[in-house]
Amino acid sequence: MTTSPATDDGVAPPHSAAPPAQPWSELRLTLGEAADAAALVSWCVREYEDTEAPEFLVDATVIAHDLPKSIRTFIARARLDERPHALVLRGNLVDDELLGATPAHWRSALTPGSRPSSFLLALYACLFGDLFGWATQQDGRVVTDVLPIQGVEHSLVSSSSRQELGWHIEDAFSPYRADYVGLFSLRNPDRVATTLAGVPLDELDERTLDLLFQDRFLIRPDDSHLPVNNSTAQRGSPKFEEIARAVDHPDAVPILTGHRAAPQLRIDGDFSAPADGDEEAGAALETLRKRIDAALYEVVLDAGDVAFIDNRRVVHGRRAFQPRYDGRDRWLKRANITRDLYRSREVRASGDSRILGQR
Q: Could you tell me which CATH number the domain at 2-192+299-356 has?
């Protein structure tokens, strides 16, 4: 389902035309819809301290039903469709002056000017499921930040820049990984592209598919979960012990699960490998890597664009870019969403906790 603004003669402007076989589903908000959503966010800003507040996380699902009906309908219909790789809502309002400078680090990104964007992303997310965060990622925040950090330009985490962020299923190492990943672009002056790709099933032979469905692969946590990428005060915490075990002794898992014709995908291009000595599994994994590389395509999220990526079936990454470090760099808010919060109960401190890894 694609909706685009029309010109005075009823014809959509050329820049908003979608490619013929667009693999994502898109809604372009009218100014009225964007204003109504912003008004609801303004109410949240007055009522709640921030999106991390437990009372907001309890209330958010109900508040989200006051979003414009067109938005709720788009999400309700599109999220049940197996075909789209992502849902993109374009035209949300971002006040660049209020937003202020892009922070130098995610630790300083909880700014007053970015609060409205965090609330809007959270409300949209609640139309898909429940928000959650990781105790081992950005100090346990539910809504996190994606921005370039000086000194880690060539790292394998989202704060890299000159190094391309390789394609991956978010937190592929974990059985509690998100069903959807939400990205809200607050600023993207250089139009840096997000990359996406699904599983190219038609290009895989039966033997390769058989192998990918077997427990013959190791997927380790990505570097964003390591102590070095969290605050210094957090680094001695026991919550990193499980991550260390998953790095040193990962269990063998399948890359594909579920229905053969519409499988769920579990892979990280930089952190997946065959089980030790399993050459047959290694060949299958390499075949899949090449097919995903060939299938990768770009989506540019401009300021005000929100994307919800199907993390069960679609890998995502980001092209390399030259950071500015002048307060005008690319900046996104990010959220993890699960359709079944109870699934992760054994790794949460309580039934109403949203943070995985705090037991």
A: 3.60.130.10
